[in-house]
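Run log, item B.
One chain of 543 residues. Sequence copied directly from the ordering sheet:
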Amino acid sequence: KGKGKGKAPLSKAAPPGPPPPKAKAKTKADSRSPGAPEAKVPTWKAIALLTRQQDDGGFSAEEIGRALTEMARSTQLQGVDFRSELTNAGPNTPTLFVLSLLDHFDKRQSSSWSHDPANETDEEVDERIEEICISMLTSQNLQLEHGFLSKLRSYVSKQIGEVSTEERSKVEELRDRWVAFMTKGSVKEVDEESKKKKEEEQKAKEEACRKAEQEKVDFWKRQKSRSLENIDWKAMAKFMYCDGGSGGAFLAQIGPQEEAVVIKPLGIKAVEEVVAVEVAKLLSIKVADQRVLGMGATEFYEMAGALSKSSTAMDDASATQAMVHSYQVDDHYQGKIQFAGIVEFVPGHVLQGMPGHEALVGPRRLSIFHQVGRLIALDVVLNNLDRLPAIWTNEGNLGNVMINLSGEVIGIDQQVIGIASDDARQTYLATVRQYVSQSMRGSIDDSKVTERLNTAVLQNCGVEMQGSDFQELLSGSRDVFQSIASMDEDMLKESFKGISERMVATFADPVTPHVGLGRLDDSLDFILQCLAAVTSEVKAQSR
């Protein structure tokens, strides 16, 4: 899955290096008259292009072209009209040019950094990029707002999408000429033959990457789910790191029978994630099962040892090795990751892209929406907003909806998000009752809700929701809500007592980091209040 959705099609830009050192005092040999042209454009001037960002996150040919041309006039390259070149190259080129320029500074200067991006999440890397760029421009009395990079990546993902080989080559050719001008004071013209050769090399490289990725996809498609108990970690045959979510995860093939499990790091939200799975089981809603493995267990060391065997890794990228290292425990019994979730491997696909589209235009369409409605009901009692935006004003994340080979909908990566403030909690409970009421009636009154749901499905799967789809979705939620209302209150309290005891037994280790155990009682109380709100509204609608 991917929290990582929406990434730019060009490679992820890392920081363009630290701010430039303070200028040395001019000597007689390097002094210039005030009007003399510069030999090259300083890095900060190129970074200053970011200040031309539009409200939607993109960049216009007019603004970027004007800035590049103005810089050309201040150098020995007078007469270079970058504005015309950007305008003629197409509407996407200015935005891709800026992103590609950041990427170039990453590759050029990364060897001198003290940071290792492989040990950081995407969010941490982007945050550091922003800090460095803002610092660099602040030293030149220029303003740059936080969040510019996330806006840029969002624009590229939503407005541009995949970048063709031809468009990529045009952007990189223009960027290379600009960088040559910026660093050397001259523009190297690229003849047609060289340009064609470069395009062919790029196509061959992309085709090789595509084939390699497809081989990985085909490999994991052949894997089957297996029991989470009695895993022989020494029999781990292959593993692969998948970015996304809260820390990514490893897919691990166990033994020769093409069976697999998922290894997922558990951090400060560990308790809320495991409680969510427990509640799903209680409500008979299908989510990927999981078992918690702590560093206090011998099995944790066996698992970490299996991951350390690089010969079984399907990807030797630095990010993979960094994550593997996070599971290693030193002589003082300290490791970056001290709890891991051994999660059920679900053969199938997420409700996104072409597989998601094909599922929703096939004969199981209504069944899928019914099952998705059951997942929404679970999310409502958990306040898990990272899936379908039924009662939340966000874009949703259909990457957390899996469809297995039998057409069953399986939830992944859910968690409890408690609300501490009494006023905010009461507001949320009112929203819960409203959705329960709509589910019981089989009709959504608020057009904004239907618009959010339809937009999420359309953007992720390319399918417009019809009236029958909404009916099935509400029907799935209604089934769960009626089941909740029929539960015996004493039985429910006893079940939650058991969940609490299991969480304490699993996570109450004084040497482990904060994993949310202190929020356990509040989380369980919040869920019970949501269940009570569901029950009262179901009974009110049934009168």
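Observations after the first pass:
- The beta strands are 224-225, 236-242, 249-254, 259-265, 290-294, 339-344, 348-350, 401-404, 409-411.
- The first strand starts at residue 224 and ends at 225.
Flagged for discussion on Thursday.
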